[in-house]
Amino acid sequence: MKTLLFLLITFFSINLFSQSTVSGKVTDSKGLPIMGASVYLEGTYDGTATSEDGLFSFETKEQGQQTLIVSSISFETYSKSSDITNFKNVTIKLKDDVNTLDAVTVNAGTFNAGDNAKVTALKPLDIVTTAGALGDFVGALQTLPGTSNVAEDGRLFVRGGDAEETQIFVDGMRVFTPYSPSANNIPSRGRLSPFLFKGITFSTGGYSAEYGQALSSVLLLNSISEPQEEKTEISIMTVGLGLGNTQKWKKSSLSLNTSYINLAPYQKLYPDNNEWHKPIESVGGEAVYRYKFNNDGLLKVYGAYSSVNFDLTQEDINVADGIRFGLKNRNLYINSSYQDFLEKDWSIATGVSFANDRSEIKYSDADITDIENSAHLKIAFKKFFSSRYKLNFGAEYFVTNFTENYQDTSFENDYEFDNNLFSSFVETDIFFSKKLATKIGIRGEYSELLQEFNLSPRLSLAYKAGANSQFSLAYGEFFQNPKNDYLKYNSDFTAENTTHYIMNYQYVKNKQIFRAEAYYKNYGDLVKYDTPFALPTSTYSSNGSGFAKGLDIFWRDNKSIKNTEYWMSYSYLDTERDYQNYPTSATPDFASKHNASLVVKRWIEDWKSQVGLSYNYASGRNYTDPNKGGFLTEQAKSFNSLNANYAYLISPQKILYLSVSNVLGTKNVNGYQYANQTNTDGVFDRRTITPAADRFFFIGFFWTISDNKDDNQLDNL
């Protein structure tokens, strides 16, 4: 019995003797105590929480090398490995977690949208519910500051740059022909369906080193990774039909969409100045397949085909019977991307996109066939070292083959070129604190056609001035090869380039956003030629130059008025260029000094309806009047358009949608065409160029068939 008692006393004595005390104090970076922080030894149940004074103390029987963990909301987790005897009376300072919602974001020149964006300036839903946008993502983006209203074109013109200076990417892969082709004074539309995307990043300047070949802007579209449910969608419209179906399986899903558009009824209801031999007719289809692997890898394959066909005779002051223009276009686009998370906080994103575009054009007596085959291959890696330091790098290769056959009654020739480009980039995000962050990157590009290598540094800096406001600065150099219209005739060019300087202020609080951004762009090595149009016989050079400077202001409010949201934007633009066949530096005819938009949406519960209005304004654009002399010195009248839409929720899955563009039927002027010769009074006669149609009226019925009967179709629309 004595022996047993002796052994028990000895055991408890040894156990008590072997226990260690872990103690200390936890503070923030300013030395203030943190209450409620979790303190424990990794892999054990030994631990405690800090007191009001930030103090902690607990006993442990663990010995030797151990890892002490300290964590608290809004702070980075602290981890240190050492001998247990070194964890006594320690002082631990926790760093602010720069990934919290109140932390700084690097956003100069960029509008983010989507579920994961900290600041939502424009949601994907806005694309199809904005009056006047007509379901086109470009139409909705034109309500944001930095864009210019070029109604007769329909593409994105950003901060003094023409439409060719904006590039569009889907899941990081280039879309080579994002717009449907059209005729003069008839706006083109984006080929991509807005229902495919969950997030949008619209950068009006100073964008990431990951993207190149764009002097003014990049539009990044992120497709839906996994559909919410199986469903069938049917749409019946005044101008066509649409049908879609989504199927889901355990690890994969497939979405199919088809559409048919015929503008014959619309063109009869609203005739224009054109003589239509064949109204605009288009048919298209899209397919998206997604597969999720066991290791969190995600494969997306997107394919789209579209065909556009029309024929018309357009008025021309110098041709009595007008000019005949016909177009048959076929476009195939395939985009495949793969993303995966690797070990030790690495991730990979890779993909390939391919486009085949064929256009058969009838222009007066000429027959033109253009064929463009393009591909984009890309691989990128990201390393998450900590919440304060992230690294992104990769490489990509662009391949373009363009051929054109031109023939008329007296001439026939073929033109072609291969424009292949290799690029690589590296970029890092550094968060010094919750208030200060920077993004530093550099991009290198080598053009096989131009035999030229260019290096593009990029830098952004952001400082959080208060709980709801921050300032940002951005600088970058950007290069872009001349467009196909020049390269098919000549390749002795230097890459066009521009330098961006941006200063941004942003305020975000309670569903309200205010942004003000000033910028300056300096252009160099722009293409010049010595003929009225780019021709095979033109003399070309890279001696062009220019600048663009301005101020963009944006305000969005989803809070002040119940069931109502609205946003306002204003842009001031001062720009001049000496390029193309310009005899002197002048403001281009596509640039308006003032652009403004107002968008209002209101949900009326008693009517189960959403009513929307939008108003677009642009000051008059410059043109040349040969009767007065000077080059691009006159200004046309300003552009004004009031648009309205109405959506009625028949049931949770059925909706009736109506939209009217230019409700007041304002006679907007896109410019003037002057006669080549003076009349008997020695005056050059002119013809006013107005939109192909002053008003567009659209009615649609949308029906979603799914297992979820509570699904609100208005949320999808």
Automatic annotation (TrEMBL):
PROSITE patterns: TONB_DEPENDENT_REC_3
Keyword Transport included in the entry's annotation: yes
Main localization category: membrane
One Pfam family named in its UniProt record: Plug
Xref: InterPro entries: Beta-barrel_TonB_sf, CarboxyPept-like_regulatory, Plug_dom, Plug_dom_sf, TonB-dep_rcpt-like
Signal peptide stretch: 1-18
Compartments reported by the entry: Cell outer membrane
Domain of life: Bacteria
Topology term for the membrane: Multi-pass membrane protein
Residues covered by the TonB-dependent receptor plug domain: 136-213
Gene3D superfamilies noted in UniProt: Carboxypeptidase-like, regulatory domain, TonB-dependent receptor, beta-barrel domain, TonB-dependent receptor, plug domain
Keyword tags: Cell outer membrane, Membrane, Receptor, Signal, Transmembrane, Transmembrane beta strand, Transport
GO terms under cellular component: cell outer membrane
Family listed: Belongs to the TonB-dependent receptor family.
Protein name: Outer membrane receptor for ferrienterochelin and colicins
Organism listed in the record: Maribacter aquivivus
